Amino acid sequence: MKHIVVTGGAKGIGRAIVEELAGGDYKITATYNGSKTAADELAAKYSNVEFVQADLQDRKAVARCAEEITKRGPVDVLVNNAGVYIPKSFAKMTEAELLQQTDLNFTALALLTHKLLPALRQAEAALIINISSQAVHARLTGEAVYSAVKAGVSTLSYVLRAELNPEGIRVTAIEPFGVNTYGMPEPSNMILPGELAQTVRYVVELPDHLQLDTVGMSHIKQTRPTYPEWIEH
Asked: Could you confirm whether 146 is annotated as catalytic?
């Protein structure tokens, strides 16, 4: 039975991932922070799901979380999902909001991955899945910090792939464009959390020798730049 770790697993995308994987022959350890009722509900619903409470913005909490996870044996799959999206221009963003995005979306991801490497190395064909974003490429106005940290996640994934593939550890970055988790005004144009979770499961269930380097996905109605006036179409 593979051991899968999912960060931010009590709500949003993480909850969808936990529920998608809970139906498989997996042992799942998920982290949560501030969503104890939701975590307890999922743990009661699925006998193969356990939760660890951790504020991943707290570096000491990340260390305690990693220690707790490694007590449960080798880690076959690490899904780095926990994150936050704050749609504000750079000038209007508070210092706390800026640091929240850098600390949770990147620093916590990198630190937890680093601390879980020994447990990942114990698995036969370990897999790291980092939930990044199409913001890496879109670079939309109002998403300066979010785009920057997600670019860091995708770049980290790329380099880790080169460093860890020789050890048999695979690394996949999933880059969705617009997931309906924050009550956006146009939900019909967005990816549903469950659809992203299905993609995660597909990557998890690939043969041990296969790796999807980067997965880009979007709703076909997602907002995109229109034709400039000088382009014939």
From this structure: yes
